[in-house]
Design a protein that fits this description.
With about 220 residues, this protein is of the alpha/beta class. The chain is about 35% helix and about 30% strand. It contains 8 helices and 10 strands. The strands form 2 sheets. A 6-stranded mixed sheet has the order 6-7-8-3-9-10, sandwiched between helices. Strands 2-1-4-5 form a 4-stranded antiparallel sheet. Helix 3 (about 90-100) packs across helix 4 (about 105-120) and helix 5 (about 135-150) packs parallel to helix 6. Bound molecules: adenosine-5'-diphosphate (ADP) (2 copies). One adenosine-5'-diphosphate binds near residues 49, 71, 74 and 77. Keywords: ATP-binding, Nodulation, Nucleotide-binding, Transport. GO terms for molecular function: ATP binding; ATP hydrolysis activity.
Length: about 220
Protein backbone atom coordinates (compact mmCIF):
# COMPACT_ATOMS: atom_id res chain seq x y z
CA UNK A 1 0.00 0.00 0.00
CA UNK A 2 1.12 3.56 -0.67
CA UNK A 3 -0.62 4.87 2.44
CA UNK A 4 -1.89 2.72 5.27
CA UNK A 5 -3.34 4.03 8.50
CA UNK A 6 -4.44 1.63 11.23
CA UNK A 7 -6.34 2.67 14.36
CA UNK A 8 -4.63 6.03 14.29
CA UNK A 9 -5.35 8.22 17.31
CA UNK A 10 -4.09 11.65 18.34
CA UNK A 11 -5.09 13.09 21.68
CA UNK A 12 -4.54 16.77 22.54
CA UNK A 13 -5.13 17.20 26.27
CA UNK A 14 -8.53 15.61 26.69
CA UNK A 15 -9.58 15.96 23.03
CA UNK A 16 -9.38 13.04 20.62
CA UNK A 17 -8.58 15.04 17.46
CA UNK A 18 -8.10 11.76 15.55
CA UNK A 19 -10.02 8.87 17.04
CA UNK A 20 -9.00 5.41 15.88
CA UNK A 21 -9.14 5.87 12.11
CA UNK A 22 -8.12 3.26 9.53
CA UNK A 23 -7.85 3.57 5.75
CA UNK A 24 -5.48 2.76 2.93
CA UNK A 25 -4.60 4.04 -0.52
CA UNK A 26 -3.33 1.81 -3.32
CA UNK A 27 -0.58 2.95 -5.64
CA UNK A 28 -1.85 5.52 -8.13
CA UNK A 29 -5.13 6.34 -6.38
CA UNK A 30 -6.26 9.96 -6.05
CA UNK A 31 -8.37 10.17 -2.93
CA UNK A 32 -10.21 13.11 -1.40
CA UNK A 33 -10.01 13.53 2.38
CA UNK A 34 -13.21 15.43 3.07
CA UNK A 35 -14.43 16.92 6.32
CA UNK A 36 -15.41 20.14 8.06
CA UNK A 37 -12.88 22.36 9.81
CA UNK A 38 -11.58 20.68 12.94
CA UNK A 39 -12.41 17.15 11.74
CA UNK A 40 -8.81 15.94 12.06
CA UNK A 41 -7.57 16.12 8.45
CA UNK A 42 -4.42 18.17 9.08
CA UNK A 43 -3.56 16.17 12.18
CA UNK A 44 -3.76 12.91 10.20
CA UNK A 45 -1.62 14.37 7.41
CA UNK A 46 0.98 15.70 9.85
CA UNK A 47 1.28 12.23 11.37
CA UNK A 48 1.68 10.68 7.90
CA UNK A 49 4.45 13.16 7.06
CA UNK A 50 6.21 12.73 10.41
CA UNK A 51 5.55 16.22 11.78
CA UNK A 52 3.43 14.87 14.62
CA UNK A 53 3.64 11.65 16.59
CA UNK A 54 0.49 9.54 16.91
CA UNK A 55 -0.82 8.79 20.39
CA UNK A 56 -1.79 5.31 19.22
CA UNK A 57 -1.95 3.33 16.00
CA UNK A 58 0.23 2.92 12.93
CA UNK A 59 0.83 5.16 9.91
CA UNK A 60 2.70 3.73 6.94
CA UNK A 61 3.79 5.42 3.73
CA UNK A 62 5.23 3.33 0.90
CA UNK A 63 5.21 0.43 3.38
CA UNK A 64 7.52 2.29 5.81
CA UNK A 65 6.24 2.87 9.33
CA UNK A 66 6.65 6.65 9.72
CA UNK A 67 7.52 6.39 13.41
CA UNK A 68 10.09 3.59 12.95
CA UNK A 69 11.54 4.42 9.54
CA UNK A 70 10.93 8.16 9.15
CA UNK A 71 13.64 8.90 6.58
CA UNK A 72 12.66 6.47 3.79
CA UNK A 73 9.00 7.26 4.48
CA UNK A 74 9.62 11.01 4.13
CA UNK A 75 11.72 10.56 1.01
CA UNK A 76 8.71 9.08 -0.77
CA UNK A 77 6.38 11.93 0.30
CA UNK A 78 5.69 15.32 -1.22
CA UNK A 79 3.85 17.40 1.34
CA UNK A 80 2.02 20.67 0.89
CA UNK A 81 1.05 21.95 4.35
CA UNK A 82 -2.11 24.00 4.76
CA UNK A 83 -0.23 27.13 5.75
CA UNK A 84 2.86 26.71 3.66
CA UNK A 85 5.65 28.94 4.92
CA UNK A 86 7.37 30.40 1.83
CA UNK A 87 10.34 32.74 1.78
CA UNK A 88 8.72 35.91 0.44
CA UNK A 89 12.02 37.68 -0.29
CA UNK A 90 13.40 34.84 -2.41
CA UNK A 91 13.04 34.63 -6.17
CA UNK A 92 11.01 31.63 -7.37
CA UNK A 93 13.93 29.85 -9.03
CA UNK A 94 16.26 30.65 -6.14
CA UNK A 95 13.73 29.28 -3.65
CA UNK A 96 13.27 26.02 -5.58
CA UNK A 97 17.05 25.52 -5.89
CA UNK A 98 17.32 26.15 -2.14
CA UNK A 99 14.50 23.68 -1.40
CA UNK A 100 16.11 21.05 -3.62
CA UNK A 101 19.35 21.35 -1.68
CA UNK A 102 17.42 20.63 1.52
CA UNK A 103 16.25 17.43 -0.17
CA UNK A 104 19.89 16.54 -0.87
CA UNK A 105 19.70 17.32 -4.59
CA UNK A 106 22.49 19.25 -6.32
CA UNK A 107 24.32 20.30 -9.48
CA UNK A 108 22.90 20.04 -12.98
CA UNK A 109 20.32 17.42 -11.98
CA UNK A 110 18.87 19.86 -9.44
CA UNK A 111 18.89 22.67 -12.02
CA UNK A 112 17.14 20.62 -14.66
CA UNK A 113 14.59 19.33 -12.16
CA UNK A 114 13.82 22.89 -11.05
CA UNK A 115 13.27 23.90 -14.70
CA UNK A 116 11.02 20.86 -15.11
CA UNK A 117 8.78 21.66 -12.12
CA UNK A 118 8.60 25.31 -13.18
CA UNK A 119 7.09 24.19 -16.49
CA UNK A 120 4.93 21.53 -14.81
CA UNK A 121 3.44 24.14 -12.47
CA UNK A 122 3.08 26.89 -15.10
CA UNK A 123 5.55 29.20 -13.39
CA UNK A 124 7.62 30.24 -16.46
CA UNK A 125 6.35 33.83 -16.44
CA UNK A 126 6.85 34.19 -12.67
CA UNK A 127 10.16 32.44 -12.11
CA UNK A 128 12.22 35.65 -11.99
CA UNK A 129 9.90 37.34 -9.50
CA UNK A 130 10.10 37.34 -5.74
CA UNK A 131 7.58 35.03 -4.06
CA UNK A 132 6.22 38.03 -2.14
CA UNK A 133 5.22 39.67 -5.45
CA UNK A 134 3.12 36.71 -6.60
CA UNK A 135 -0.64 36.26 -6.43
CA UNK A 136 -2.03 33.68 -4.01
CA UNK A 137 -2.62 31.22 -6.85
CA UNK A 138 0.97 31.47 -8.06
CA UNK A 139 2.27 31.18 -4.50
CA UNK A 140 0.32 27.96 -4.16
CA UNK A 141 1.92 26.73 -7.41
CA UNK A 142 5.34 27.45 -5.90
CA UNK A 143 4.31 25.33 -2.89
CA UNK A 144 3.24 22.51 -5.20
CA UNK A 145 6.48 22.80 -7.21
CA UNK A 146 8.41 22.51 -3.95
CA UNK A 147 6.49 19.40 -2.92
CA UNK A 148 7.11 17.66 -6.30
CA UNK A 149 10.81 18.56 -6.52
CA UNK A 150 12.28 15.27 -5.32
CA UNK A 151 9.82 13.31 -7.48
CA UNK A 152 7.99 11.59 -4.61
CA UNK A 153 5.62 8.69 -5.28
CA UNK A 154 3.06 9.92 -2.73
CA UNK A 155 1.58 13.44 -2.54
CA UNK A 156 -0.08 14.66 0.64
CA UNK A 157 -1.80 17.97 -0.09
CA UNK A 158 -3.52 19.80 2.75
CA UNK A 159 -6.36 22.03 1.44
CA UNK A 160 -4.42 23.04 -1.70
CA UNK A 161 -7.31 25.08 -3.16
CA UNK A 162 -8.68 26.76 -0.02
CA UNK A 163 -8.73 30.56 -0.23
CA UNK A 164 -8.25 30.71 -4.01
CA UNK A 165 -10.65 32.16 -6.58
CA UNK A 166 -12.41 29.87 -9.12
CA UNK A 167 -9.82 30.45 -11.88
CA UNK A 168 -6.93 29.78 -9.56
CA UNK A 169 -8.68 26.65 -8.27
CA UNK A 170 -9.05 25.36 -11.83
CA UNK A 171 -5.36 25.95 -12.51
CA UNK A 172 -4.25 24.25 -9.30
CA UNK A 173 -6.44 21.26 -10.15
CA UNK A 174 -4.78 21.02 -13.56
CA UNK A 175 -1.35 21.04 -11.94
CA UNK A 176 -2.39 18.33 -9.46
CA UNK A 177 -3.85 16.22 -12.30
CA UNK A 178 -0.71 16.51 -14.43
CA UNK A 179 1.84 16.21 -11.66
CA UNK A 180 -0.19 13.58 -9.80
CA UNK A 181 -0.27 11.22 -12.76
CA UNK A 182 1.22 7.86 -11.70
CA UNK A 183 1.41 9.09 -8.10
CA UNK A 184 -0.70 8.33 -5.09
CA UNK A 185 -2.48 11.49 -3.96
CA UNK A 186 -4.30 12.20 -0.69
CA UNK A 187 -5.73 15.69 -0.65
CA UNK A 188 -7.90 17.31 1.94
CA UNK A 189 -10.75 19.76 1.48
CA UNK A 190 -13.98 20.76 3.16
CA UNK A 191 -15.75 21.13 -0.21
CA UNK A 192 -17.39 18.15 -1.93
CA UNK A 193 -17.06 19.71 -5.43
CA UNK A 194 -13.28 19.67 -5.00
CA UNK A 195 -13.42 15.93 -4.50
CA UNK A 196 -15.74 15.45 -7.48
CA UNK A 197 -13.40 17.41 -9.74
CA UNK A 198 -10.31 15.36 -8.97
CA UNK A 199 -10.97 12.05 -7.29
CA UNK A 200 -12.61 8.73 -7.78
CA UNK A 201 -12.73 7.94 -4.12
CA UNK A 202 -13.57 9.89 -0.99
CA UNK A 203 -12.79 9.33 2.67
CA UNK A 204 -15.03 11.45 4.87
CA UNK A 205 -13.85 12.34 8.35
CA UNK A 206 -15.91 13.95 11.08
CA UNK A 207 -14.95 14.58 14.70
CA UNK A 208 -11.86 12.42 14.30
CA UNK A 209 -13.66 9.39 12.88
CA UNK A 210 -13.99 8.02 9.35
CA UNK A 211 -17.70 8.12 8.53
CA UNK A 212 -17.47 7.12 4.86
CA UNK A 213 -14.89 5.45 2.63
CA UNK A 214 -16.16 4.65 -0.86
CA UNK A 215 -16.02 5.48 -4.53
CA UNK A 216 -17.90 8.63 -5.57
CA UNK A 217 -20.25 6.39 -7.54
CA UNK A 218 -21.14 4.39 -4.40
CA UNK A 219 -21.59 7.57 -2.39
CA UNK A 220 -24.04 8.93 -4.98
CA UNK A 221 -26.00 5.69 -5.05
CA UNK A 222 -26.46 5.65 -1.29
CA UNK A 223 -27.50 9.32 -1.40
P1 LIG B 1 -8.86 19.85 10.15
O1 LIG B 1 -7.56 19.78 9.42
O2 LIG B 1 -9.84 18.81 9.69
O3 LIG B 1 -9.44 21.23 10.13
P2 LIG B 1 -7.24 19.53 12.54
O4 LIG B 1 -6.53 18.25 12.38
O5 LIG B 1 -6.49 20.77 12.24
O6 LIG B 1 -8.58 19.49 11.69
O7 LIG B 1 -7.79 19.66 14.02
C1 LIG B 1 -8.56 18.64 14.66
C2 LIG B 1 -8.91 19.08 16.06
O8 LIG B 1 -7.74 19.13 16.86
C3 LIG B 1 -9.51 20.48 16.15
O9 LIG B 1 -10.52 20.47 17.12
C4 LIG B 1 -8.35 21.35 16.57
O10 LIG B 1 -8.80 22.46 17.28
C5 LIG B 1 -7.55 20.41 17.44
N1 LIG B 1 -6.11 20.72 17.40
C6 LIG B 1 -5.32 20.77 16.30
N2 LIG B 1 -4.05 21.04 16.61
C7 LIG B 1 -4.03 21.18 17.95
C8 LIG B 1 -2.98 21.46 18.90
N3 LIG B 1 -1.72 21.65 18.52
N4 LIG B 1 -3.34 21.52 20.20
C9 LIG B 1 -4.60 21.31 20.60
N5 LIG B 1 -5.62 21.02 19.77
C10 LIG B 1 -5.35 20.96 18.47
P1 LIG C 1 18.76 15.57 5.27
O1 LIG C 1 19.37 16.77 5.89
O2 LIG C 1 19.32 14.27 5.75
O3 LIG C 1 18.63 15.65 3.79
P2 LIG C 1 16.00 16.39 5.58
O4 LIG C 1 15.20 16.44 6.82
O5 LIG C 1 16.36 17.66 4.90
O6 LIG C 1 17.27 15.49 5.88
O7 LIG C 1 15.22 15.51 4.49
C1 LIG C 1 15.16 14.13 4.63
C2 LIG C 1 14.14 13.63 3.67
O8 LIG C 1 12.86 14.09 4.10
C3 LIG C 1 14.38 14.14 2.27
O9 LIG C 1 14.61 13.05 1.41
C4 LIG C 1 13.14 14.85 1.88
O10 LIG C 1 12.63 14.28 0.70
C5 LIG C 1 12.15 14.60 3.00
N1 LIG C 1 11.48 15.85 3.38
C6 LIG C 1 12.05 17.01 3.76
N2 LIG C 1 11.14 17.94 4.01
C7 LIG C 1 9.94 17.36 3.78
C8 LIG C 1 8.60 17.79 3.84
N3 LIG C 1 8.26 19.05 4.14
N4 LIG C 1 7.64 16.92 3.55
C9 LIG C 1 7.95 15.67 3.23
N5 LIG C 1 9.17 15.20 3.13
C10 LIG C 1 10.17 16.03 3.40
Amino acid sequence: MSIEVTNLTKVYGSQRAVDGISFSLKKGEIVGFLGPNGAGKSTTMKILTGYLRATEGIAKVSDFDVSKEPMPARRSIGYLPEHNPLYLDMYVTEFLLFSGKLYGMKGTSLQSRVEEVIVLCGLETEKRKKIGQLSKGYRQRVGLAQSFLHNPSVLILDEPTTGLDPNQIQEIRDVIRTAGKDKTVLFSTHIMQEVEALCDRVIIISKGKVVNDSSLQELRNTG
